[in-house]
Design goal:
Helices cover about 30% and strands about 25% of the residues. The chain has eleven helices and 20 strands. The strands form three sheets. Strands 5, 6, 7, 13, 14, 15, 16, 17 and 18 form a nine-stranded mixed sheet that branches. Strands 1, 2, 9, 10, 11, 12, 19 and 20 form an eight-stranded mixed sheet that branches. Strands 3-8-4 form a three-stranded antiparallel sheet. The longest helix has 20 residues, at about 70-90. The radius of gyration is 21 Å and the shape is globular. The two termini are about 25 Å apart.
Length: about 400
């Protein structure tokens, strides 16, 4: 039986999750308080195997997010810090800028609203007409666009590895957490699937796709559930058609940015993602089904509320998932020259989206505290961009908690 014993701590801080947010937290704690013993438990054999390593690699500017929200503040700050971090440690990166392109007249008011939001968030934005779009992207078509100069791309897996090295933390891979014993008067003990017991004074939950489950293992009710959405990508067989990053105008009712074109740090161009319900928390294709996880998603009232409220949007995403022709049509709105043969299937990702009981998609980063525990309960995109400020905020809370024990 896993149990906390008086005075028998393996570490001061026990971090669950070896993605970029968990590793940034470990890095921030040891930088702010040298000598603090940090252990990171990661169930995979290496870091950044899920959300961190399965995205388009974009350093987001922060233009989309509500002013004064954590996403806005941390993305703007985090983008600048991420570029500096990559430069300092020789991690592949580039500040490319990006276009957000309106292809229909009804999108123009939303595009103009983004200009205003960008200015409120302190982001330099340039408005473009048709001819100016062609100067940046000769093959892209649109009625109007904005250019956001602070957007870039980088190797987030490389960032995660550097954070792991630089943190000085003990990183235990292949350590899947199966049980947590949290005693407010003593500390936290964690049992892994391999039978190891790790004891710490404070627990940090950065478990991503499983963060709500880890919170409940700890004894805290997160009041949200993670509903996994798979984002499916293609690689562009003719990458010369796209010079940089090209996005559609997003629908503000959804946290998803729509099918976009991203020239990555390797020179290849990713197209996507769409957003479809995943049948497992790590359901990277339709063939991955985990009945227990699927049943938990279906049992959450918020899942049904999403379906009722957004079924038309969801139907379009599903159509693009099962029909390459439908996906191609979405691409051709931005890139008319694209042909079916240009779309080569690429690995998918899964977004860990926190959903409230009433079906509200949690819009901002969500960090909550319990006795001897800090839980990161919503950290999808732009969390990789914002990982350094997020790690410092979580670290600040942890160190404050340690100081009060």
């Amino acid at each position: 039986m896993v149990q906390v014993r008086d005075g028998a701590y393996d570490c001061d801080v026990l971090v669950i999750g070896g993605g970029i947010v968990g590793l940034s937290t470990a890095y921030a704690i040891t930088r702010a308080a040298p000598g603090t013993r940090v252990t990171v438990l990661e169930k995979e054999p290496a870091p950044a195997r899920h959300q961190t390593g399965r995205n388009s690699g974009v350093i987001h500017s922060g233009i989309y997010y509500r002013p004064d929200s954590l996403k806005a503040r941390y993305a703007v700050r985090g983008a600048a810090e991420m570029v500096k971090f990559c430069a300092e440690y020789g991690i592949a990166h580039a500040v490319t800028g990006k276009l957000i392109v309106a292809t229909e007249r009804e999108e123009l008011p939303r595009l103009h609203a983004l200009v205003q939001r960008g200015r409120e968030n302190g982001i330099p934005v340039r408005e473009l007409g048709v001819a100016q779009i062609a100067e940046y992207e000769p093959e892209v078509r649109g009625l109007a666009a904005i250019h956001v100069g602070t957007t870039g791309v980088c190797d987030f897996v490389g960032v995660a590895r550097q954070l792991a090295r630089g943190s000085g933390a003990e990183i235990r891979y292949g350590a899947r957490v199966v049980r947590v014993d949290r005693r407010p008067e003593r500390g936290v003990a964690v049992l892994t699937a391999g039978g190891d017991v790790v004891r710490g004074r404070v627990l940090v939950n950065c478990a991503g796709l499983y963060c709500d489950e880890v919170a409940r293992l700890t004894g805290d009710e997160p009041e949200v559930r993670i509903v996994p959405f798979r984002g499916e990508y293609y690689e562009l067989a003719r990458p010369e058609l796209v010079r940089g990053l090209v996005y559609p105008v997003p629908d503000p009712a959804f946290p998803f940015l729509g099918v976009h074109l991203t020239r990555g740090i390797d020179g290849g161009v990713h197209i996507g993602p769409n957003a479809v319900p995943a049948l497992a928390r790590e359901g990277y294709d339709w063939g991955v089904v985990r009945p227990r996880e699927l049943a938990a998603t279906v049992a959450w009232p918020g899942s049904w509320a999403i379906a009722r409220r957004h079924w038309r949007y969801g139907a379009g995403e599903l159509r693009r998932s099962v029909s390459k022709a439908a996906f191609l049509r979405a691409v051709q709105r931005l890139l008319p020259a694209a042909e079916s043969g240009d779309l080569v299937p690429a690995p998918a990702g899964v977004r860990a989206q926190a959903v409230l009981r009433d079906g509200t998609l949690v819009d901002d980063f969500l960090i909550r505290e319990g006795p001897r525990a800090v839980h990161v309960l919503n950290a999808p995109s732009p969390a990789a961009t914002a990982s350094l400020p997020i790690g410092r905020e979580v670290g600040r809370r942890v160190l404050s908690m340690l100081g009060s024990l």
